[in-house]
Design brief:
By secondary structure, the chain is an alpha/beta fold. The protein has seven helices and five strands, in the order βαβααβαβαβαα.
């Protein structure tokens, strides 16, 4: 199984990327799946004015991103909460694709500096993903107080506690990926 991990923040000094790094290490170290980190900061996409299937000359970067989403058996989105919503860069890449999201198992990790772990963003992101027919996994992985919870390399301050939560979150995604594989 192969999981694409989308790191959604493009801001200077971003902290949610730490959680994306954690999941990449966690999945590989536990031999759960192969991974690929799709860092939206590295892509630096322009604001798209049309869905991919209607673009006359899509960029090589967009075609690369699209191929990686299509090839993934599942996706983990790691997003910060910005004023109760998710970053424009994430909205941009979810909206540019459509068929590529259909029935794709997607697990969501929300991140904030505050005590609620970005939970206010979940409804708007989940609704957008439902509308484009992605299969959002019921398990969530909120990360409150990110500055205290993970260092810059994605190492958790409480490895035992974080690994226990990650196991439940990832197990749910893996179950959905396996179910989709069986259903075709």
């Amino acid at each position: 199984m192969h999981i694409a991990i989308i790191s959604a923040s493009v801001r200077t000094g971003r902290k949610s990327h730490r959680v994306a790094l954690f999941f990449q290490k966690y999945l590989v170290e536990n031999n759960l799946a192969t991974t690929e980190l799709l860092d939206l900061k590295a892509y630096q996409f322009p604001v798209f004015d049309e869905r991919l299937k209607f673009q006359k000359d899509p960029s090589p970067e967009l075609l690369d991103f699209t191929a990686k989403i299509k090839a993934a058996d599942g996706v983990i989105i790691v997003t910060p909460e910005y004023n109760g919503g998710y970053p424009a860069a994430l909205k941009n890449v979810t909206d540019v694709l459509y068929d590529e999201w259909r029935r794709k198992p997607v697990a969501i990790s929300t991140v904030s500096d505050g005590p609620f772990g970005g939970m206010q963003v979940i409804t708007s992101l989940q609704f957008s993903l439902w509308k484009i027919r992605a299969w959002t996994v019921p398990a969530l992985f909120p990360v409150p107080k990110i500055s205290e919870t993970f260092n810059e390399e994605g190492v958790p301050a409480d490895p035992e506690g974080v690994n226990k939560r990650a196991k439940g979150f990832v197990d749910e995604l893996l179950w959905c990926m396996e179910a989709k594989k069986k259903m075709g």
